[in-house]
Amino acid sequence: MIIPDIDHKGSYINKYNIFIKNIKNILNHRSFTHSFFFLLLIILFIKIIFNNIFIILGIIIGIISHLIIDLFTPMGIEIFWPIKIKFKINYNIINKFLYIFIFMFLYIIFKRTFISMLKK
């Protein structure tokens, strides 16, 4: 299960959690749970519970990579929810190389960040 997809009708948590199931009926999939606002709420929630930089960074990386991947779908995402404008990236060969470059760049940045944090 991936956190931004908890509002999807096929997700495990949606099937067994009444609160999440009711949210799904109010909000569209790829709206609130695929927004920067939701990302901020999750970060604050995880910081309160765990207060561990590695867990927080892992969740941030997971959610951001999920949002980037969903940007390449025909449906797009409402990244600036509650503004109801769907953003999407048309997927072609140029975007494929750009997409790979972005993930390689992010991987290098986060790897260096983790190594420097472990050395302290």
Automatic annotation (TrEMBL):
Pfam families: YdjM. The chain crosses the membrane at residues 36-69, 89-110. The keyword Ribonucleoprotein does not apply. InterPro entries: YdjM-like. It comes from the Bacteria. The gene is ydjM. Keywords: Hydrolase, Membrane, Transmembrane, Transmembrane helix. One of its GO terms (molecular function) is hydrolase activity. The keyword Ribosomal protein does not apply. This is Membrane-bound metal-dependent hydrolase.
